[in-house]
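Write out this protein's structure.
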Amino acid sequence: MHMDLHTHDDACGCDAPGPVQLVPPPLSLYVHLPWCVRKCPYCDFNSHAGKGALPFDAYIDALIRDLDQDLPLVWGRVVNSVFFGGGTPSLFPPEAIDRFLQAASARLRFAPNLEVTLETNPGTAEHGRFDRYRAAGVNRISFGIQTFNDEALQRLGRIHDSREAERAVKLAQDAGYNNFNIDLMYALPQQTLAQAEHDLERAFALDPTHISHYQLTLEPNTVFFAKPPQGIPDEDSAWDIQEHCQALLAEHGYGQYEVSAYAREAGNASTTSTTGASATTWGSVPAPTARSAPAPSSRCCAAGSTSTRRPSWTPQARPPPSAAMTWSAQNACRSSTCSICCACTKASRWPISRPAPDWSAACCDRHWIPHRRAAG
């Protein structure tokens, strides 16, 4: 969030600071679509293998109801980007995506240059489907390729091979998509430095505007955590891969702006970068991670998430205070039992209409609310 400082001339002709206007940061809307064809052994996200016919229409109805419930939290806020994550959002038919976007656009202020991203599993790509996603309003695709090594893909439990990955990207390009991301992982079981570099070379050949390049980690509550695969590179080897790949990405014009995010041009980093300090990410049920999930009856966290990751900081290690007020809608508790947070979040125009409280205590015994008074 930023503050516009207005000045005026006083009686002595000197400039003096005028009233401070607090301007809410823009929004990035995250929509979680939790089903996938098969749960990957390394995945700790709130995702579930679909069984039988999936309830697409009923789920979209639930998302719209959830959106209606949380509108008072975001009145007047501009939405810069929408990100459909999962799970495997590309399992949803374009008509379902279109219906949600139509409903959201009728309720929210979409920016004229709104970026709408759909995560896509190459194994679900079909001829003609990308044209319909584009007609629905999706203007960016994020491909979960992970690697172009077929043996590594099998070890990772992926449902596609390298040929299908390249075919999926080309289908999207044929449909008019020139803004897309490729997800790649490194430090894979039995992976060598040469193989990791080869993955990037294959990706460069497809000309993506953005590459997510992140290390495989063994997360709790996953198959890989319970039964670690053989041949995972040690820390030194993983570091060598990271350093060489960072240099290779830079050599091909991909600037690093986050730990694992690389964009060919600064303007192509909008979806991920807007989730930083200058914007608020607003989520829709269920949350992407399955950790520390409250009971289903506990509607804690704005946008109705019933599952969310605890912030990386703790009460003993709070972020440093800043001159600007920090406000995060997704961390604002709406529980009727939490008087500390709800005193401010019940006001639909907060934080402009009233000052924020100081750092609060634990919210619902699960979340900490990073509200801070504006300096001065």
